[in-house]
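Entry for zinc ion complex. Fields follow.
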Amino acid sequence: MRVTDNRYAAEMDRFNLAVRMIGHEARTGTIRQCTGFSEDRIRKIYGTYFKNEHGNTVRRRRGKTPRQIAGFLISSRQQSEATVLGCFFIYSGLMLVGLEGGLAGRSRLNGLQLGERFCDAFETYLSLHPQPQLCFERGWSLYHALAVEQELYFASCAECFGLYIQDRYALDYQHCPFCELKAAV
Ligand SMILES: [Zn+2]
């Protein structure tokens, strides 16, 4: 393959990722981080492929990604879905979890790989949750809280020995959201 062919293929990969992320209503800043495209380029892609499409329900989001972690732990359902998505981050190679302490670290990935693998994980999560509690950007915050800031970690349940996400600085009762949900049935 010639150099120009490689460049074209890489550009197509970035373009396809931008379209995929816009479809999930990712924020412009998040799309920029993964594709390296300018805000203007992303706005044009949205305008060409989404804005005037019949029945379009995709909105273009601006501003910063919300970063509060409390929302992930506010109910057993939120916590269980955040745990499931967190596991898909591991399966898709976005992050690695240490054997001690359950802390996650991010994998060495470039922007394109990060975006593609994140979309893989998020789309798998969506396929299992017809009424998802977490949107794309909340998922992006979850990834940062787990793998970058490490404010969240994988705790272990004393009852079923399963892993679940927990606030690293909060008191942990070693009781996972899945056991909570089973007990409530
Ligand atoms: Zn449990």
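NOTE: The pocket of zinc ion is lined by residues 157, 159-160, 162, 176, 178-179 (CB under 6 Å).
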